[in-house]
């Protein structure tokens, strides 16, 4: 604790911890106010939270560099709190679903996920070649366009109460397959460009993914129910909630370290596993306040805090707009075509395509790897970050508009309408 009497300088400056809690308080207040205004304007609350992040970020107010801020790691801390938020968000998305519903949508998930990668990657490479961008840079641009981040769309689907419709389930399944395919292609490209490993290394990357998915499913189906029963029998305060937090974080770690996949894929699987337990309702009730009162709003705001649109010069504007255009078109055409091939209606195909537009943290991961390896220039990196922000911002209103109908959202046809099943 600071001794104000013995440290007169402390009257003039705030400790790193006080700076952190001051900024978190402002972020939470701004996020909830913006979310409220967004809902009043008939947009999802996440749209307002994303937009206020841009306003607070270096693009306008440069919030994390205000006069009272002297901490050198404040931005990183806020970013990491936000990353916990996206893990919780995907866990809750998985918790609302039934594994049987997802497996019933395997065909559309494969087709929409695969074509949702192939078309944007192809568009990115062709676009780069037309502008005489170095091939390696065009290749990484395409890979970034091929990524998707369903966390934003999942939040919109939850707000619209259509997460468990066949469109919602197909969208989540396609996003998971997209994540696996993009990571596999990225690993293959890195192995090819580095000239090491070759086919053997690529197969090892694929094998690690399969091993993780098998072990994650086995642990969830066999070990997790026993852990839940044991925790329930012990007199531990909020034991089930703590168990859920430990398991979702463990699945996220395993997805990254063992499977070479994004941590959000692991937490989504953890949510699916807990959805099978009788304590699903209790866990969901306890986890919602933790997620939506603190971590998730920080995540949405932190996206804007990490973007500086001032770095875009006039000469880059047309390049930036072109990349944003093919980023949106690639997902809508690719994933939409995959849904059409899976016998979805044109409207449902459009909804799935729009839901895959947001790149979010997955696109940032790929772009950071490209910049770190020297395959992306600083200008291209700035443009890609701007594209990720734009696709993240436009996804909620576009997705909401695509679901507008004379029927209420709750009347949307559920995935299990044609083939009723019992809850696991």
What descriptive keywords fit this protein?
424 residues; mainly alpha; Na+/H+ antiporter like fold; 16 helices; 72% helix; globular; disordered N terminus; disordered C terminus
How do the helices and strands line up, and which of them pair or pack?
Layout: H1 16-40, H2 45-56, H3 74-95, H4 99-103, H5 106-130, H6 135-146, H7 150-160, H8 166-194, H9 198-233, H10 239-257, H11 263-274, H12 280-305, H13 317-341, H14 346-355, H15 360-372, H16 378-402
Helix pairs in contact: 1-2, 1-12, 2-12, 2-16, 3-7, 3-11, 3-12, 5-6, 5-8, 5-13, 6-15, 7-16, 8-9, 8-14, 9-10, 9-11, 10-11, 13-14, 13-16, 14-16, 15-16
Low-pLDDT segments: 1-11, 406-411, 416-424
Number of helices: 16
Would you state the CATH class? Mainly Alpha
Distance between the termini: 51 Å
Count the beta strands: 0
Taken together, the total number of domains comes to 1
| H-E order | HHHHHHHHHHHHHHHH
Structural class label: mainly alpha
Overall 3D shape: globular
Radius of gyration, in angstroms, nearest whole number: 22 Å
Structural account:
- With 424 residues, this protein is mostly helical.
- The chain has a single domain, classed as Na+/H+ antiporter like fold (Up-down Bundle).
- The protein is 72% helix and 0% strand.
- The protein is built from 16 helices and no strands.
- It has helices spanning 16-40, 45-56, 74-95, 99-103, 106-130, 135-146, 150-160, 166-194, 198-233, 239-257, 263-274, 280-305, 317-341, 346-355, 360-372, 378-402.
- Helix 1 crosses helix 2 (45-56), helix 5 (106-130) packs antiparallel against helix 13 and helix 8 (166-194) packs across helix 9 (198-233).
- The chain is globular.
